[in-house]
Amino acid sequence: xxxxxxxxxxxxxxxxxxxGTSSACVVVYEEAGTYKSRRRTKTIKKNLAPNYEENFxxxxxxxxTETSFNFHVFDYxxxxxxxxxxxxxxxxxxxxxxxxxxxxxxxxxxxDGGRGVLKIRIKPLDFSLGLADxxxxxASPATKSLLTNL
Length: 150
Hints:
It holds the Pfam family C2. By secondary structure, the chain is mostly beta strands.
């Protein structure tokens, strides 16, 4: 099974620099048991509301209902001081309500000291494993809590 995740944009990010801006990128981790995969957006400099519009295709392993996606927003320092986390959010694949081939937009609030919202779109591309065409929301209490606090 494949799923396309589009990192559309972020808004209201925390300022990590003395000039009141951040140079942010998003790292997406797919996790299923011991399997992990990672994708990264480009860094958008000096912007608290970056627009990414970057697409990533994830090949889900069995069983996909145990797959989660973790989204980490980082400020990258251009002077070699490394990265600083601005916040993160997560989504369980089982929480996705989206018929095959249709796209759903989600606003994910950033947690753990961060502020702001990460805007994503998700689209199941194929269900070669013979799974149903639709998933019911919400399955996990953690994601339900995130989505109801918007």
